[in-house]
Each structure stands twice: as C-alpha cells, then as structure tokens.
C-alpha cells in the first residue's frame, strides 16, 4: 500500500495534475513507452503527433479556391482540391502575367524609337533584374512554408512588419495600376483597331491638342465602363475568372506563335503593306486612294486625293504646299522581310519630339528650314517626346508578374520545388521571347512603320499585326482578350493582397478592408481597388500609367533582394533555403539594378514612391501593431548592437562623448506599482543627452516564489515608462533583502561598454521615523556604493513637487550652487534640462562660494571665462561667506542630532548590547563637569519615544548667536566637535542659499560625501536636511570622479 508523498496537489510542480487526469494519462500513454515523459505531454507533444500535423499542413491560396469551395455544395467541399504541379501552378501563371499588353501595343514602337541595340539593352536590363529577383525570391520561398500572401508574406516575415507593410502597399498599388494599364490597353485596341467608329468624342478632322484630348476622353469613358464591368464580374464570380485564365493564356501564346510564323513567312514571301512617302515624310494612309500626285487616265492627267490634301483645288494649275511641290511621292514596302537587310538601318535610336513628322533615313528631301510645316494632319506625327529613360519606364511593366507562382503557394503540391523551377523557367522563356522579338522586329519591319505607334501609315493596322500570319486580326483579337484577362486577374489579386495586409493588423486604418462577404470575398478591398484603378483610367494614357506601376514593382523587387541579401549575410540559424543557387552578391546586384531603374524611369516618380513607402513605414512604426516575426531587420539590430557593444568595450568614452547613462532606482508599493512616478518624469527631462536609461526596481523574496510579482512589477515599470515617454529598459531584481537587490542593480546593470554612469534615486522621505530606518540605511549604502564604483549620483529631494512632462515654466531660474568641482556634472545637468520644453524658458544662474582669503572679483572673471569656453549661457554670482562664531542654535541642532542617533542606535541593539552600551556611556561621562551632573539626555530633551522627533525645551527667541554661556554649556555635551563644525557650515550655507534661491524653480547643490564610519549615518542625513531646509526643489549632485564637460572642441 503506497501512502503518497504527503504533498497537497496545489503545490505539485506539474500542471493539471489531478487524480482523474493521472488515470487518463496512464491509459492514454499506456503501451507507448512514454511513462517517463507523461507529465510533459500537456506542453510538449509526442514527435509522432507533431510530424503528423506538419505533414498534413495545408493553407488556402491567395487565389479563389476558398471562394469556389464556399459556393460549391457540401460533398464537393469535402473533396481535397487537386494540387498543382510546376507547369500548371507556376510556369503558366507567370507566363500569362509577364506576357501582355506592352508586347502587343508598344514593343514595335520601342524598337523603332530606341533602335535594336538600345531596346535590346533595355530588355536585357529589365530581364536581368527580374531574374536576379526571382533567384532571391526562390531562396526566401524555399526557406520554410510560404502560406497564402505570396510576396507580401515573404517580405514582411523577412524584413519585419514596417518594411512588410510598406512594400505590401507598394505591391498592392503596383498591381492596381497594372489593372488600369491593362484596361487602357484593352480600350486602345478596341477604339483604334477594332471599332474606331465607336468613339463617343469624334476625332475626325481634329488636329493637335484637340484630337489628343478627344482620344483621352474616349479612353476615360470606355475605361470607366470596362472597369465597372470587370469589378462586377470579380464581385459576382471569381471562379469564372480563374477558369477563363487558361483561355486568355491560349490567346497570348497563339498571338506570339502567329508573329513567329509571320517572321518565317516574311523570309520568302513578305506581306504587302506599302507605305506612302512624300519626300522622306510618312503620309497617313487614311483617305488615300493611290500613292501618287497624279495618274494618267486615258490621255489626260488626273489629280488624286493626295493632290487635293496639299493643294487648294483639284486642277493641275492649283497652288500647292511648297514641300509637296518640291518632293516626289514614293512607295516603301512596310514589311521588307527578315532577309532584306533592314536590320542595319534599325540598329540605332531615333528619338523624336512631340508632333514631329516621322521621317525615313536615307531618302533625300528638299526642305526649306524657314518655312513651317503645313498640312501636318496628313503626316504621321509623333504623339509624345521620346527619350531613353521614358522607354525604360514604359517597357518595365512587361517583365513584371514574376510573383504569380509564389502567390499560389498554397495550391502547389511541392511549393519549395515548383516555385524556383517554374518562375526561373518562365522568366527565361519570356526573356527569350522579348529579346528575339526585338531583333526580329528590327530585321523585318521598316523603321518608319516601327515608329508609327498606332499604324496610321499602314491602313490603321496594329503594327505587330502586319507581321503576323495568317492575318493581322489574330493579333488584334488575341491581344484584346489577353488584356481583358490580365485586367481581371489584377482586379482579383489586388483586393486579396490588401485583405491579407489588413488581416495582419499592422496598419490600423486598413483594418476595415480585412472584412468581406460570408465566403471571404474582399468586398471593401475590391471597392478601394476599383477606386484607385479609376485614377489610372483618368490619366488615360498607357505611356503615362506604365512608369507609375514600374516604380511600385521595382520597389517591391528591390526589397525582395534586400531581404535575401540580409538573411544570407546575417547567417541566422533559421536561414536554410532548399534552393541553393543564390548568393548575397547577386541579391545586392538585383537591388542596385532595381534602384537604378527606378531613377532611370523617372526620378520624381521614384521619390514619390519612396515617400509613400517611407510614410507607411513610419506610420506602422508609430501607430501599427507590435509584431514579432523573427525578421531580418531584428537580426540586423542584433548584429549592429553586438558590433557596437564590442567597440564600446575598447575603453571609456572621451569627455566629449560623455553623456548621462542613467540607472533610475524606484521603489514599489504593495501592489508592485511605482511609488515615485515623478522620478521618471525627471528622467525624461534629462534625456536630451540621448544616453541609456535603465529603470530598476527591487522585489524582496526568492526567485521561485516571487517571480509573478517581479513580472507584474516589470509590466508596471514598462507601462509607466511608456506613459512618461522614457526610452530605455526596465529591470526587476529579486533578492532576500532590498539592500542586496539594490546593490545587484548597481553592479550588474547594463551590458559590456553600455553601462550606466549615473544613478538617480530619490531622497528618502520620513527617514527620521524608526519605521523607515532601513530605507535610510539603504539610501546611504547607495551613496557609498556609487562613490566606490565612481558613478555619478543625482538625488532629487521633494520629488513630488517636481513638474510633470506636461507642465511648462514660462519664467524662473535654475540655480547652480557650485561649491566643489566634481567633474562638471553641476554644469551639464541644467544644460540638459533646458533642452526639454518644461525647463526651456528658465534661465541658468551659477553661484559659487568665496572664502575669506579668496579674491571674489577675480573668481567671477575666471568663472565667466570658463562658462564662455564651455559655451554655456548663465548669470554668475560669487557669494562671500565670512567666518563667524558658532551659534548656540548650531550646538542645539548638533546635540539633538546626536541624541536621536543614540536613541535610534539603542533601538536596534539586543538587551545585553544595550546594557554594555549604557555602562560605556556612564564611564565616558564619569569625569566631573562644572555644570549639573545630570546626563545629557535629561538636559534639554523632552520625553523621546521611538518614531517621534526630538523637541527642544527652550524657546527660539533666545539670542542664539550672542549667548556665550549657553554655547559653552552646550559645547560640553556635543561629543564630536567635527559634527558641530559640519552643522555650522551646513546652516550658514543654507542661509545663503535660501536668501538667494528661495524663488528658484530648481536648486542644484554639491552633495557632501557619506561618513567613512557607520556610526554617523543619521548625522549625515541631518546635515543634508539642514543644508536643503526651506527649498522647494533641490537636486543633490555627486560627481563620478571624472570630467564630463570640456572646453575643447
């Protein structure tokens, strides 16, 4: 029969250890060979159960799987969604996102304006940037499981909530503006190439700015309509968008294949797209019947429509445009074919000003430079001024979309394998397509056709369509559907990204966008996305919107590279990517390329994008939720802190670098709350020095029993520090007695070279009462220990009268009584206080004491010179203290002090010790004296009980200074004459200070050193009391034995 251990269950060290749970546990783990660890199973699971939960890990994707499940029936919901492989899950989505509107609408124009070499350089730079970013992204994506949230999740968990939020918002804005760009591309294809007659604002017959404004207004109206329809589709049924994704991708691939087929065909049978040239100028094909000035019809010469455009009548004797008269009309083949050698002509750039006529190189033309161009509406004109950096900004969006695979990480069978392979393969494929297109366009198409952005010289055809086989319409409809699909994808992805950021809770004002429909559809986020997208639609120009989204994507990619580089360089133990082909140098190169491209595209957009990211960063830092994600920035902080601490270890700081590193010792009440909160207010006001602050408190007891109280005290300290805006650290020490705990704090506070050099502790209240005798001894021990440790000591007396951080002194003085030099702390503290708004309006006054043999005039001059060199503004006054007789009042105070000391001492003695002490005192007083033989205690002291103050029996109206009989009478009973001298000095000094500084807002004084022997502790406190009597706020300062202020630069 086992009797048990006799311990009550409450004190058992195990959690939830009731008898019933013991039985359950024994049954649960019976036969599992886990009896030894069964008590830990509540907090530490078995390895088998842990592995089982990890193996069955699943996460909802960023896409619409959860929304489809919500709309399907119960049976369908129970079936696990089919997991996708590399091709379907990563490769094809990336291909669809990368290839798009820019390739079909602007690539030929980019080649024509930038030249084959310049455009190839742009493509190579942009593709290199995305490839390097993909390598960094692959490393991050394979370093553990990436849940839904894709790029935002990766960056925020690698760089912390501030960077994560800022970059997440940038990525969101980039995706939203991408939606606007796709919609504008879709409208451009519709209104320029498919149904030009659908335009609401007719631009027929309009020239210059009017025609441009009409076109932009058409884009705005149709863009808003299409945006509304797309938002409705996304709102009603996201699953249809995902199911149509493959159809849209098929359109893109078919279109590209049609272009390649056309290139091959052009080698032996180039398509017939003639361009009509007048001299070296390209003419608009619209309205032309034949490319000639006149034609022979029968035996007569008949003028053509072209003649009528440039002449005032259709007759041969009409007055015509001078340029028309002087130059011939010729026809040039628009698509000469890949074997024609046109590549050499298209190698170099051909940048143009806005409204400049498209001209062909190598054709002679007669031009009078003084005659302005007339009939400009008959020529093909440049619609914008082009330059290299503009081309980079317009092109870069065509390489974005590399995050599509990582955004679907929850859908993949093996994300860590699929994301790197699929993304890098997609970038390689699309880069090959882009680079080959640059060369093939330059080799197949005439330069003037390439520079003809809207195909006005080739019967209004899409320029890339003229090269396609079997028909230009393949490209027109293919690109139209691909832009629609891409727009829908953007409007689907962007709200979910915003929802992920909002649900993380790091940006408070976005929390409303985390809510949605019952099935999780982000309704509010979709509304905001559509509103921001409308801004892009109102801009209405594809060429103006493209650089905007380039900025946001480049910033996002830059931070992905930064995240990878930091994690690699910091070598955090958790950084173990499965993808091994990365290096920090590649990440830094990618980051540098991103930053360079941002400023190449548009320096002012780059600054705006960085400003937005910076504002969000600071907003999250100040207002956002505190998140601990084990991020790289925290790792940098740790590494930087370690490096700085190691550097600080090299030696003590130079006087110029000295700043108060304050250890604040605070007392706690029974509820573990701070007794003197104004100590922290004063600490805040002293923090102009920007030094270290440690707020220390002591809890009496043992660590095992009193740990909860220590935690509560620590929380209380942190809360008060936050309220008082004190930036620093809190430290609570548990010890068997408060004296040792305080000593531990003074000895062990700080780390390495970052240690406190000053201690701030409040003057003990009610120290005369026996109850607080221990507090008195603790205080004097602190004074002794700081002196021994060469630490400065700052003791505010009457701390409750000090101002809070919210108060302001509009006038007044801070008075410094500089009696002994202690390294300059007395000078430095008022300077630091006056940096704070509470004390800013106060003026500084310095008083110093001159003895009888000092030259006070010379002292004042020297002090003014010293302050001038210290760069301190202060009034100076030298106070002369004359030697005088020691008054009866001084003896009286000294006697009272000694008797109180004796009584307090006797209270703490044992009975035997007390008897021995009495005998010793009687022995000392046995010598006969001229006065009554009564003991000193009965002379002038009323009945004294512990805890009461000693009262004098004579009245204060005795002339204390001029009664030598009384003085000599009292002299005999003051056992220590040095006490009399100290009391005399304290009293005289106090009289002078009160006279000069009664009205001062703060008085700073040198603090006298503690007594060497322990018998005079109460006397020491009495001296301090006499010294500061009659003053409201006093700061007693004791230097640490080294200079803290210097006149040298």
UniProtKB/TrEMBL annotation:
Short name of one Pfam family: AA_permease
TM region positions: 121-146, 166-199, 219-238, 245-264, 379-403, 424-450, 524-542, 548-569, 581-606
UniProt biased composition (Low complexity): 11-21, 926-940
Q: Where is this region: Disordered?
A: 1-35, 59-79, 922-941
Record-annotated Amino acid permease/ SLC12A domain positions:
90-264, 379-663
| KW Lyase (keyword) present | no
Q: How does it sit in the membrane?
A: Multi-pass membrane protein
State if Cell membrane is listed as a keyword: yes
- Give the family per the record: Belongs to the SLC12A transporter family. K/Cl co-transporter subfamily.
**Record-given protein name:** Solute carrier family 12 member 5b
- High-level lineage: Eukaryota, Metazoa, Chordata, Craniata, Vertebrata
